UniProtKB/TrEMBL annotation:
<dbReference type="GO" id="GO:0017156">
    <property type="term" value="P:calcium-ion regulated exocytosis"/>
</dbReference>
<feature type="domain" description="C2">
    <location>
        <begin position="1"/>
        <end position="104"/>
    </location>
</feature>
<dbReference type="GO" id="GO:0030276">
    <property type="term" value="F:clathrin binding"/>
</dbReference>
<dbReference type="GO" id="GO:0005886">
    <property type="term" value="C:plasma membrane"/>
</dbReference>
<dbReference type="InterPro" id="IPR000008">
    <property type="entry name" value="C2_dom"/>
</dbReference>
<dbReference type="GO" id="GO:0000149">
    <property type="term" value="F:SNARE binding"/>
</dbReference>
<dbReference type="GO" id="GO:0005509">
    <property type="term" value="F:calcium ion binding"/>
</dbReference>
<protein>
    <recommendedName>
        <fullName>C2 domain-containing protein</fullName>
    </recommendedName>
</protein>
<dbReference type="GO" id="GO:0070382">
    <property type="term" value="C:exocytic vesicle"/>
</dbReference>
<dbReference type="InterPro" id="IPR035892">
    <property type="entry name" value="C2_domain_sf"/>
</dbReference>
<dbReference type="Pfam" id="PF00168">
    <property type="entry name" value="C2"/>
</dbReference>
<dbReference type="GO" id="GO:0031045">
    <property type="term" value="C:dense core granule"/>
</dbReference>
<comment type="similarity">
    <text>Belongs to the synaptotagmin family.</text>
</comment>
<dbReference type="GO" id="GO:0005544">
    <property type="term" value="F:calcium-dependent phospholipid binding"/>
</dbReference>
<dbReference type="GO" id="GO:0001786">
    <property type="term" value="F:phosphatidylserine binding"/>
</dbReference>
């Protein structure tokens, strides 16, 4: 958040395997908002035999034109995640053709070092093995 009270948030998702980042993707930046809505899909191709070693690291970032972008908060989803992140992952694996949505708390942050804030993010997981085929079958032409 800058001195005007606005934020330019975006979401950065990293595909992790055994602690190493394999790939990363990010959303567009939403300018001057504290309540962004993205409605964007971030797709990673993961072989089914490797799914047990995969985790997603999700970071909400504040874009800064000068200096470094700030981390607003982070959460993990996957087999090695805490209870909610692991439960969400397992539910996605159990229902691979159904979008599974959960709210995830982000790490507590302090804005201007005096106001405690708890943030949450809603994440949809799809376990589809062939996303394009699924998309074409389920959208109207």
């Amino acid at each position: 958040m800058d001195i005007t009270g606005a934020s330019d948030p975006y979401v950065k998702v990293s595909l992790m395997c055994e602690g190493r980042r394999l790939k990363k993707r990010k959303t567009s930046t939403k300018r001057n908002t504290l309540n962004p809505v993205y409605n964007e899909a971030i797709v990673f191709d993961v072989p089914p035999e490797n799914i047990d070693q995969i985790n997603l690291s999700i970071a909400v970032m504040d874009y800064d034109r000068v200096g470094h972008n700030e981390v607003i908060g982070v959460c993990q989803v996957g087999n090695d995640a805490e209870s909610l992140g692991r439960d969400h992952w397992n539910e996605m694996l159990s229902y691979p053709r159904k979008p599974i949505a959960h709210w995830h708390p982000l790490a507590e942050v302090r804005l201007f070092s005096c106001f405690p804030v708890t943030l949450i993010i809603k994440i949809f997981l799809y376990g589809i093995t062939n996303w394009m085929k699924f998309y074409k079958q389920n959208t109207k032409s």
